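Fold this sequence, please.
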Amino acid sequence: MAEPLSPEVTATLRALLAGPDPVGGALLAQVPHTRVAGRCGCGCATVDLEVDRTAVAPAPPHDNPAVDAGYTTPHSAGVMVCSEDRYLSLLEICSVADEPISTWPDPTSSSAEQLSGVAPDGRHALARAHGEAAAV
């Protein structure tokens, strides 16, 4: 049974997909029409996503993952936004830590300064979230 996105998942998606890139913009437009369809069995914060495809258009063709970024604090973790058939399908967090990361780091807190990664438009994900240009 699908459930609404948590505020943490919504904030993470918005931070990673914000910016002028048409793919990120189209995927961002899908967020209000997205629900959690499942969770990872290991106990981590990863969520399977399901978009109401009748309510919003697909994103332009793009590579997968659509965004690949990472946190260095409070945990060293990789974060990916994936899609299927050009619709949001997965928000994944992964780490080599002994315990799974069970909560999403707050992308609006000071720890968000550690969010880094290259998004489809070639800018760092944190810079995209704050509208700044950051050279790769």
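Strands lie at 3-4, 34-39, 47-51, 67-71, 77-84, 87-94, 116-118. The two ends are 41 Å apart (CA to CA).
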